[in-house]
Amino acid sequence: MKVPLLDLRAQYQPIRAEVMAAIEAVCDEQGFILGPRVVELEQALARYVGTSHAVGVASGSDALLLALMALGVGPGDEVITVPFTFFATVGSISRLGAKPVFVDIRPETFNMDPSQIEGKVTTRTKAIIPVHLYGQCAEMEAIRGIAKRHGIRVIEDACQAIGASRNGVQAGALGDLGCFSFFPSKNLGGFGDGGLVTTNESRLSDTVAILRVHGSRVRYVHELVGINSRLDALQAAVLRVKLNYLDRWSEGRRRNAVRYEQLFKNANLLERVTLPRTDGGNRHVFNQFTIRAQKRDELRAYLKDKGVGTEVYYPVPLHLQSCYQELGYRKGAFPVSEGAAEEALSLPIYAELTDDHLSYVVKTTASFYSRH
After folding, report:
1. Structure pTM?
2. Which of 85, 183, 307, 370 sees the fewest Cβ atoms within 10 Å?
3. CATH class for domain 247-371?
4. What is the pLDDT of residue 74?
């Protein structure tokens, strides 16, 4: 049996007619950059997330960069975040000449450990970026409380977490700004790159909207030094169709996660693998179903040989990347992140998986451990 990590064709085929009709409409209109299709998507996503504003941009990476730019982050500033995340979280800080300051993660959720933040706050701290990793919200009440005491802004890296919520509040509405990615593998994925910034503050929304078009509100008149980060109408049209199915797909992922838990327990594998834990009050949307596995690399090779797709998010924490040697961190600085990098393994979780697929993944995992 073949079980790919992700099968976008299985998601696409049932909605193909709707998607193609939307694409053809844009082609007939011949309006491709921003425009009414993007505005319609922005309004729909603002309603979905529960914010007053949403601004479409070219990618999740740009969403993070533009959010920081809107807050005026620049050289000499510090931004607190985690080393166990995709590079763009930290790269966006560095691109502006600011300094990333790391805190470790919780071993159970892979998310920021709020108890470590206060000790890293200085007079130069401009923002905190918690990452809602794998589709689960970070502990935002604690993080926001610390930020409020120190007058620091909070940017949610919600690139993997659209549709997730904490105590009834959606990811992207829990901080000052929320950043989303529409990379094809995301729960709401486009047919290429795309991103979104959400906020309840009109001033921040306006600033992001200006910055995404070279700092211009009126053509050829530039108020700010911005970048080119516009969401295409074709992507907006595709995403608007797919948004109608997002909750259904997320529930499918959540259903598969519950089934995985049952299968792993029934296979007596809980001494060899640690299953993802959902914090109380959280609605986890499982962009990834990430276990911690003994003999991770050997297990991954075995699963690949048996036709099961997996991925390691992420094999090298950012404080140990060569481009960040100048920060002065050494191995052992963030032991939980380093341990996660050695043990984390993401398994297939997309909504279209059948029970036979899930059973095969777990049976194959059990077969590996019976030999090791």
Report:
1. 0.96
2. 370
3. alpha beta
4. 97
